[in-house]
Write a structure and sequence with these properties.
Helix content: over 70%
Structural class: mainly alpha
Length: about 200
Amino acid sequence: MAEQKTKRYLELQMEELKAAHAVTDETTEPPKKNTDHTRSKNAEIAKMYEDAAEYEADLKGFEEELEIVNSNELKNIAAALIKQFPEEERDYAQELRTILEAGWTHYIEVEQTHPAEQLDLVKKTEFANVVEVLNAAYPDYSGDFEKDIRKLLVKRWENLIAIKQEHIKQELAEIKTTGLKPKYVKRVYEQYHGIVK
């Protein structure tokens, strides 16, 4: 009985939300009239999608960066990222260096696949030259330093992508709790902000 009351209460809340947002059928297009009232409602609905839209933009950027990481020689990655994203305020060269140093520390301390002396060499060497320097210092290394480094970079960007995908998923789930469909809210957001797809 309590379960039925809870269910009915949730249904009533849903109806109130839909009425507040003037949604009778979620598959219908948002109202086209540009009255102040409609604009105000659309602003409220559009606001619900702001975080998801920001995460989607970040996700797209990280996917493009990963593509550059995968399609360029290691020594050219920083320059390719800077060229592709000149408006970014990130220091890609420093970012690559930080990823490499953290990853190499992981290789030494956790995986124990590399000697500690390599980290000192990695820290002193320009990112663009690190493979060449490591190969010269450790000619008997049975692995492939370039593959080791690329693996670290790819893993980093894959993690960033996974985090953004999870954030988007959470935002869409939150939108669903309001009783509105995420696709509808996204469409209102795009129309409200004049985004043409």
